[in-house]
Structure formats: C-alpha cells, structure tokens
Design goal:
By secondary structure, the chain is α/β, with parallel strands linked by helices. It contains 11 helices and 7 strands. The mean pLDDT is 93.
C-alpha cells in the first residue's frame, strides 16, 4: 500500500459488506447496520445502485467476505465465553464491529490496528457520517516499515499478560512469508487462551482451471491497485506454520465447508463458489 493513500482493497471489501445488507435476502449472514453508513458518498451510491450485485463472480466474492467476518465474530463470541476480553483487529479497514458488538457489559476492549493513512481515512468517514466514537476502542496506527506492532499495541494499552483474540482478515495474501512468520511469532507471545482467525488462499497450482482464471483476474486487479498478492498456502503448510509458532489449529474451513456453514438452503442464490479461500481458527 502506498504510504499516504488508504487501502483501496479495504474500500472494496467494505462495499461488499454493505451490498450484502441491501441486495441479499434475510436472514443475513452478517447483519451490519453501519456498513453502508460508513462508506464514502460515491461508494455508497455505487452500492445502492446494485449494479452486477447478482453476477456469479460478484456475489461469490461478497459471500466469502461476509462469511469470513461472521466466522471471526462467532469465534470471538466463543472466546468471550472462555474469558477473553481483548479483541485485536489486524488490518481493521472499515470494519464496524466496534459499534455492533454485544459485549460491552463484559468489559471487552477493542484494538483496531491499521496503516496510519487508512486509519485517518476511516476516522474521517466516521466523523462525516455523524457516528459516535465507539466505546472501549483504541486506534492503533502502525507503519509496519518503521514501527513495531508489539510496541504500538502496548503503547495503546494492550496487555500481553492477558489472553487476546486476533482477527487477521484480508491481510495474509498480501504479506511476504517473513512478515507472516514474524507476526505469528509476536501473536504467540500472548498468554494461554488467546485465539486467532485469518483467511488464506490455495496456490494457483492447487486450483481447477476455472478457479485459476478467476484468481488471475483478481490478482491483476489488486496488483493494479498497488496491493499485489504474494502469499499462498496449502492446508498442511498453514498447520505447520502455526504449530511452529505455538498455535494449534482448531478449524480450517475450505470453500465447501464455508458454504455449508453459512449459505446452504438460502433462497436468494447467495453462495460461495470455488474452494480457493480458507478460514482458519487457532488457539494458544
């Protein structure tokens, strides 16, 4: 991502979450009443036009993005039941969980981590929309080329001695392997009981021909936006990487499992097509 420009992919993800609110039939996979409100005006107008909303490629991408947010939030809800009270969103983008979550009485603290340019942009959109600053939420701006994630979190009140839950959505494919491993190692420094959710994609050679075509198309688009894909995994590689960093995989859902969990039986045609994207949950 360019230093002074907010993430373009974060905007497209937020637009797809907003589209889900108005183009798909209830019950929604992700019920997010703030998604459309937080968008820039031009992006909101594009979403409201619903152009190509039900094209198979567009709806499948939307399905994956709302499913991964729902998966992360469900896993965090289970972590709260286990006593976790720190929730860290790595690459928060325009996520709205801080306004929506039901855990205020439990004393949950939320740490939104993102690049300074993206975070400044988001906070401007919050003000523009007339939304209140979310309670018990701390913005952790990190320039990863110059600052330490651990240092910035601690500066913002994060407690390494207490368990935490980390979501890392829409980030891993853009990392180098070294950055992926160093982040996992830091996250593993947190106390026993911590949790982690992230998504990853299978490498091109593991996909069917039609899925390769779609991956090539998507890779070209994100590269053009200055945020190219770099990192892909096979499931056994993910399990090995996590184990080496002190994490234990509890779930690794492929496309079929994601579809069965969130889209089976829907009447509106919203469905996950293909098996490239995976969702992982891990525990310390």
């Amino acid at each position: 991502m360019e230093q002074k420009i907010p993430s373009r992919t974060a905007l497209r993800v937020a637009m797809r979450r907003a589209m889900h609110q108005i183009a798909d039939t209830p019950p929604l996979v992700l019920d997010d009443s703030y998604a459309l409100q937080l968008l820039p005006r031009e992006a909101a107008a594009e979403v409201e036009a619903k152009e190509n909303a039900h094209h198979p490629v567009s709806s499948s991408m939307r399905a994956f993005m709302v499913a991964r947010s729902r998966f992360a939030e469900d896993e965090f809800a289970a972590a709260v039941e286990r006593g976790v009270r720190q929730y860290v969103l790595l690459g928060a983008g325009l996520d709205t969980f801080a306004w929506r979550h039901p855990f205020r009485e439990q004393g949950v603290e939320i740490f939104e981590v993102d690049h300074p340019a993206t975070q400044t942009w988001k906070r401007g959109l919050v003000e523009q929309a007339g939304m209140p600053e979310p309670a018990a939420t701390r913005y952790v701006a990190v320039d990863f080329e110059r600052q330490s994630l651990a240092g910035r979190l601690i500066e913002c009140g994060f407690d390494l001695s207490r368990p935490a839950f980390f979501t890392w959505l829409g980030v891993v494919p853009y990392l180098t392997r070294e950055a992926f491993r160093s982040t996992l190692a830091f996250l593993a420094e947190n106390s026993v009981g911590s949790g982690l959710v992230f998504d990853y994609s299978l490498p091109r050679e593991a996909l069917a021909e039609n899925e390769r075509v779609f991956l090539d198309f998507l890779a070209a688009r994100v590269a053009q936006a200055g945020e190219p894909f770099r990192l892909f995994f096979l499931p056994e590689e993910v399990r090995s990487e996590l184990q080496s960093s002190g994490w234990r995989v509890t779930k690794d859902l492929d496309g079929v499992a994601i579809h069965d969990a969130f889209f089976r039986g829907r009447s509106d045609g919203l469905a996950l097509r293909g098996r490239a994207g995976h969702l992982v949950s891990a525990r310390k």
